[in-house]
Specification:
By secondary structure, the chain is α/β, with parallel strands linked by helices. It has a single domain, classed as 5'-nuclease (Rossmann fold). Helix content is about 65%, strand content about 10%. It is built from 7 helices and 5 strands, in the order E-H-H-E-H-H-E-H-H-E-H-E. It has helices at about 5-15, 20-30, 40-55, 60-75, 85-100, 105-115, 125-135; strands at about 1-5, 35, 80, 120-125, 140. It has a 5-stranded parallel sheet. The protein is globular, with a radius of gyration of 15 Å. The two termini are about 15 Å apart.
Length: about 140
């Protein structure tokens, strides 16, 4: 299974940035692997979508459609509800912080979550996070 951060998931479900949305869609068509969906992913994605609406990049109907599509993808197994061991994730995040200074806390938590879940690919459009992902020994896509 793959792990995706909110930059990838927001592109997939709302598509503010047409180029990123196209890349996300193309990757998902080519790679039929499901995506881990932790409670952390859920709140961050939903907040990112609401923030997009607040910024004027999406209207109420687009936001509603995005939430409905997420719910459908959870029912169909495209996104998979996944619980994480928070103690392990925080320990790994602290170790990453020690080895790779200058990282944002949420990036550390995403990468630590992906490491604990033994993900196939880490899906992101965030260049700074991708650097940390690679330094941690994970493969970045798209």
């Amino acid at each position: 299974m793959n792990y995706a951060d909110s930059s990838f998931l927001a592109a997939l479900y709302l598509g503010d940035d047409a180029k990123q949305a196209q890349k996300a869609d193309a990757f998902m068509l080519a790679e039929a692997y499901p995506i881990f969906f932790t409670p952390f992913n859920r709140v961050e994605l939903r907040n990112a979508l609401r923030l997009s609406q607040w910024r004027g990049n999406a209207d109420t109907s687009q936001l509603k459609q995005a939430f409905e599509t997420i719910a459908a993808d959870l029912r169909e197994g495209f996104l998979v509800h996944t619980l994480i061991n928070h103690t392990e994730v925080y320990r790994l995040a602290d170790e990453l912080s020690e080895r790779h200074s200058g990282c944002r806390t949420l990036d550390l938590l995403h990468v630590a979550s992906a490491l604990s879940l033994k993900t196939r690919y880490f899906l992101t459009f965030d260049v700074r996070q991708a650097t940390l992902v690679q330094a941690a020994g994970l493969r970045v896509k798209p």
